[in-house]
Amino acid sequence: MKIVGTLSVLLVAAAIVLYLVPSNDYVLLPDPAHPVAPLVHVQGGHDPKPPGGIYFVDVFERRASMFEAIFPSIHEGATVVPARLIVPPGVSDQAARQAGLREMSISQRVAAAVALRQLGYRVVARPSGVVVAAIDAGSHAVGKLEPADVIVSVNGVRTPTIADLRAQLSKLKPGDSATLGIRRGAKQLTLHVQTTADALDKHRAIVGFAPEQAAEITLPIKVQIDAGNVGGPSAATGQMNLDGSVSPIGGVRQKIFGVRAAHVDVFLVPAGDNTAVARRYAGGVRVIPVKSFPQALRALATLPRKG
After folding, report:
1. Continuous segment of H or E residues that includes residue 169
2. CATH number at residue 131
3. Which of 153, 182, 217 lies at the terminal end of a domain, its last residue?
4. Is 209 exposed, middle or buried (0-12, 13-18, 19+ CB in 10 A)?
5. Gap between the Cα atoms of 180 and 159, Å rounded
6. What are residue 77's phi and psi, to 5 degrees?
7. Is there a contact between 217 and 110 (Cβ–Cβ < 8 Å)?
8. Which of 201, 217, 233 is the last residue of a domain?
9. 244: containing domain
10. 263: left (phi over 0), alpha (psi -120 to 50) or beta
11. Which residues are CB-contacts of 84 (< 8 A; sequence separation ≥ 6)?
12. How far apart (Å, rounded) are the C-alpha atoms in residues 87 and 24?
């Protein structure tokens, strides 16, 4: 009995140590869906009346303990992923967090612009640079560029559009250094990054990041969205572009569990692989795939009334 008792104590102690020691991975955890109405304030608008409502879902991201990395199933709906998928190489946790908040700020403006255009308002959106959406781990941009940076010039020439940026890079040979004018939040920076060869064309010079179009948006009425400390590309279920199209998202498994926890009836999710994952864990939730904001509105308008 003493041997068994000693072994039990050692096992418990080992488990505690594993739970306290951080791993090199991140754990993604569900968070119950939250009502959107209290977070959005529109000039001249009014609060929606019950019953029903629109909710948004997010995902908790934090460093996983060694125990969680080995046994992720201790949390329902959890997924353990390598840290590089959450925090890009060469970027600190704090910098990645700030980048996520900048991405959220951009996406809020885009969401407001798309919604007002749908209502018939004139929204002005001028190209204002190229957003760094993701960084190639094998490029020299690692440790220099950060997600959500906006590249506004290359070698002193303004690059308001992705086409402009590619035109300037086409003048370089792989291995040449590119001088990049960067807008990082309120800061203006100048970075020198050595280019590399495009994997599909060895004669084409690239910096090594995934580009997205940045735009300076002028709204005809005041719209405020308070997402608190939620960072990332979207406050709703998907990443929406200025043309109203919806792009694939991450954390779908956690988000469908968050939807279920809030007892929400319908989950709008980007069509394709996202929909397949959501339906796999949907339980009793109805999953509707959408490709654009107008399509999402049509889906909501045709839902049957409850009761």
Report:
1. helix 162-169
2. 2.30.42.10
3. 217
4. buried
5. 10
6. 80, 5
7. yes
8. 217
9. 26-93+219-301
10. left
11. 137
12. 11
- Is the same domain home to 69 and 145? no
Give, to the nearest 10 degrees, the angle between helix 252-261 and helix 273-280. Answer: 40
Q: Are residues 83 and 229 in the same domain?
A: yes
Do 176 and 223 sit in the same domain of this protein? no
Both 232 and 284 in a single domain? Answer: yes
Within 13 Å of residue 69, how many CA atoms lie on the same side as its CB? 17
User: Mind listing the pLDDT tens digit of every residue in the chain (307 residues)?
Assistant: 445 556 566 666 766 766 677 888 999 999 999 998 888 889 888 877 777 788 989 898 888 988 888 888 888 999 999 888 887 777 777 777 777 778 788 888 888 999 999 999 999 999 999 999 888 888 999 999 988 899 999 999 999 999 999 999 999 999 999 999 999 988 999 999 999 999 888 999 999 998 988 899 999 999 988 877 665 544 434 578 888 898 888 899 999 999 999 999 999 999 999 999 999 999 999 999 999 999 999 998 998 876 5
Residues 274 and 287 in one domain: yes
The helix (run of H) or strand (run of E) holding residue 80 is: strand 79-82
Torsion sign (Cα): 137, 143, 144, 150: positive
pTM value is: 0.78
Q: Residue 287 is encoded by which pair of tokens?
A: 């999953």
Domain count, the chain: 2
